[in-house]
């Protein structure tokens, strides 16, 4: 089978309007595509990535889920997410990339952005269809950002950070009663956030909620109650979802067999990994790989 390694882009490798420290860049999407035609292959980024479409149509495949491209849609992507654009016609809009370091230089804790629904683990919140008034407002903010980058002046990076936060705020207001946004209990939200951070660190080797509960100094039943309250999903399912996502990335990213992937994800029995994958997706790992590559 032909090896299909994902291209991984660093923020400094893109041709676009940028400020000198290479932690922030912006452009109109049409020009961005013309200067960076290679981004139309399946790829991932080491930085935060935002795209607001004002024209065109097509599909966007983001971590194996397919979404529409159309006027008024804004996408928010976290580092290391895998995605691919499929355009049906000429598209335009705006693209903006930034690193967590960009915010840190103004003493804005990167955890601030984690409070916005589109930067949590629930991918359905990363794609927002803006109403007409918000489209006008967001369009204006992107134009202000482009002007600021083209005419660098005193405190330009700080000005850019204020525009960026406004885009986050106005976009997040468009999400009406989303099923996957954590509910209001602030203490439980903090525990959920810590739980998700621990999963991201340990999901390959720690697969049981009781082990995470111990790290969080709560009981397994408390952890499960909190995840149900906050996300309507069990504590165990959150772990399984993260393991499954990594398995899919490995299956279509590298020419690895199921045994190698099982070892990478700390499944010591290949047959158990295959059963796990099939239970979650309805497909064996190899059938998933063939289906994805045939569609790609």
Automatic annotation (TrEMBL):
Question: Can the keyword Phosphoprotein be found in this entry's annotation?
Answer: no
Q: Which domain of life is it from?
A: Bacteria
Assigned keywords, A-Z = DNA-binding, Transcription, Transcription regulation
- Know the name of this protein? AraC family transcriptional regulator
Q: Which residues form the HTH araC/xylS-type domain?
A: 193-291
Keyword Transcription belongs to the record: yes
Q: What is the native source organism of this protein?
A: Lacihabitans lacunae
